[in-house]
User: Fold this.
Amino acid sequence: MVGQTVSHYRIVEKIGGGGMGVVYKAEDTRLGRLVALKFLPEDLAADREAVRRFEREARAASSLDHPNICTIYEIGEHEGKPFIAMQCLQGETLKHRIGSKAMEVGQVTDLALQLADALEAAHQKGIIHRDIKPANIFITDRGQAKLLDFGLAKLLPRVDDATASATLTKTGAVPGTLPYMAPEQLRGQPVDARTDIYGLGCVLYEMVTGQRPFRAEMATELCSQILDHAPASPTQFNARLPAELERIILKCLEKQPQDRYQSASELITDLRRLVGPSAAGGRWGFPRVASTIGLSRAARKRMATGLATVALLAAVAVAANVGGVRDRLFPPTTTKIESLAVLPLENLSNDPEQEYFAEGVTEALITDLGQIRALKVISRTSVMRYKDTDKPISQIAGELRVDGVIEGSVRRSGERVRVAARLIHGRSETQIWSQAYQRDMRDLLALESEVAREIAREIKIALTPGETARLANRRAVNPEAHELYLKGRYYWNRYEYRKALDSFEQAIQEEPTYALAYVGLADTYYGLSGLDLPPDEALPKARAAAAKALEFDESLAEAHASLANIQMVYQRDWPAAERGLQRALELNLNYATAHYWYGIYLTYLGRSGEAIHELETARELDPLSPTYAATVAWSAYNARRYDDAIQQAGKAIELEPNFFPAYLSLGLPYEQKGMHREALAAYETAAKLSDFAPVAELLRARVLAKTSRRNEALEVFTKIEPAATRNPAGVSYHIAALFLTLGDRERTFEWLEKAHATHSEEMLIIKVDPVFDPLRSDPRFRQLLQQMNFPE
Assistant:
């Protein structure tokens, strides 16, 4: 057609072509300007209804007057072939600009702002592009982005599995625009502004990585990736990519439109925050802004001098790493991660009732990562304190004393679940890795393990063959059963044991071989022991449930630890309990609860050095747990290290000023040191904080007896005796200690026998408790120790 005249356009040369038509450079003979003429391909031109739709769209697009949208001058027809006349631009398409190499971040953000601004202008007029891709974006010689082909995408047929397969059969290739289509386009659902935002996300991904987010060669596989798989983290291909830009891109690429930016203006806001104040006036730098607001040349010079001074000071700060500036601006290329905290995953389900689900996935990820011995992983209790926090990552990492932090989100939609996670270097707040996953509920356990393996691979921690096997061999589970299990754990963590019990029992009804549900059942019966149920009823049920869990899955550290705890508390089988706890720690060295129970076990047996070590390890894994801190104090007290116990109890109180067991741990060493006033104050505080719990009251009574206030001490016993007679397991041991303080050995042994007969857990400390030192030569006392199977 070169040399021909079409309407009043003389065609000069062919400048391009593709699936959407052939483009020629032409001269507008009326206005004396160069234009681009685009002729639609014959297959599209033959569909007259499609052409009419296109004409309506093109008319609307021609009304757009925006510097980043290629202007449409005219719609015409030549020899039955529709064409459009538009701006003739000098430069290249973004497709050619990218090639297969990542672009500079500054250039990406500059072009992203221009393109988002263009989309905002179009969307405000109700115009949706529908075909955002690098080939439809032109970069002029002056670096200006221009969106091409508004309205043409409406001519494209819907692509679903069937049409993709048909296309594949005919051509063996992927349709040109398929890789950039949003999931709702593939499904033939209505499109809106968020569809264009998805397309722009695909473009930005390709700009920063040099490749498309989904790259399958076969159309059916590509459709599957777009509909069901999350794109790989861009930082896998471009390690220098800022974490915030990656977050922006991945938000554009969310599968569900409601999870993306809801408008181009929202995207622009985040892009401007990313590039800083210089973006407030668009692409202009300092001189353009200064002249625009009317500053004189001298004023501009003074302003530039001031900025240079700031830059110099910043350079000095970077060199000296003042305030961590260097680490923030230029993070280390290698970040050694040996300890992690998994922050509570955000519930994106827009349903508060799904909170249990997000917490459950968080806890499962902690458990899976905890199985990696070379990695220290903070326990649930401490990380849950950061739920909904606005603290910086660097501060959280410092408080938890970890190298890295994992944060992310969970969305539950019917039987599908989406988990997004990213790993951040704590000190520099640099993103190291991020990924999103979408699976059926049935595959949730396998997904959680997959995330753990990918994190280990990213931070270059080698898994042992046993760790690899345990993380890889996570079988599918009945979704209803797993959901009930997560609800049970949610209630259990809040001490709502009856609700937890119902949930775990229902989970087992759904799937009778579900080992985790049996572990939950065991832990719940243990929690109910001495509270709602007598130990003789609750603890055998706990033991049976834990044993059942191991029958179905021997690799569960939680099951070994739970059974060992019951063997210690109920059966007094000390060798079996130690073997179980050691096995639990072999399977999961990061299981703080196992370290905690093992520390208590060692305290009971008088192995104080080992006990303190285990309890300190538990506290390292759960540094914000007041329970663990108070137990360290309790163990030091039983080792006769009273000053250490006072110091450790003080740390527990600092963590949680209203945690009454910490005051009990503080009162015990004070009492043994003869500091009765301080001991009484600690016990009274514990009594008030616990709503005058019997144990706190009996400890207070003990000090009253030692300070010649015998009658007051007996009044405390009189008040508590009816409840103690009904449920002796909880307080018999402390009543015995009170009568020993009062000098009544007969009643002391009477209540010790009750404590032993009812399997009182408090009774287990009797071998080392300083309170009972006066009885150690009594044959009845030695016989009692033998009955409890204490090793010699």
Q: What stands out?
A: Residues 153-176, 277-319, 322-334 have pLDDT under 50 and may be disordered. Residues 297-320 form the longest helix (24 residues).
